[in-house]
Amino acid sequence: MKVILVDDEQKFITMLAKRLGFRGIQADVVFTGDEAIQRVRNSHYDVAVLDIKMPGISGLKLKKELSLLDPALKFIFVTGHGGKQDGDPEQQEIYLSKPLDIDILIEMISKVSNSK
Question: 92: which DSSP letter?
């Protein structure tokens, strides 16, 4: 399984990638929406974990861009601002609050990667 992590909080997302790696999940890290778009153009990912609030493009807008590049890509949103943000309930999007519980994140990555 290959995951892309997108968050402007560099220390947080780098540590998260290491923790996922220890548990057998390959995770690439990018810090901006533009970097994420370039990576998804050049590589396949099963799941994208997106911060909702980032400078430039928000996680919700980034999802739309990435979905155009790879319609099979699944999404999990994270926020440091608590609670579910605006989203499309019909898409059954998953929203997690920071600080993330690594076991719950892994469970959600598994859940979305196995859904069709």
Answer: T
